[in-house]
Amino acid sequence: MSTGGSLFDLRASALDEKDELDSLPSDSTSDIYSTDSEAQAEWERSLEQLQLLLTMMIVPWFGKYFGRKFAYWSWARYMEWAHNMEVKWTNKKSFKAVGAVEAATTL
Questions:
Q1: Which GO terms fall under biological process for this protein (predicted)?
Q2: Whole-prediction pTM value?
């Protein structure tokens, strides 16, 4: 009887091993697609954040900076045309720096 019991134990352990192998995690197509959709959602969130950064910060700053440059340039051209006055910027680097600072502080 002891051999029968040990034979039964061997069979039971073989079935347990098979059950363990069957219960191992496997990559199914649903798992792959769920990680792809998560990656896609994260990519879309990153694009949305970049779009917000551009529309709320960068584009308005560039608009103000270049708008001021255009306003000063057009004012100088008007003064030369209408009043025969020559407008000179004495220090172009400081003029550009001041324009950038003014655009940044008025956001």
A1: mitochondrial outer membrane translocase complex assembly; protein insertion into mitochondrial outer membrane
A2: 0.46
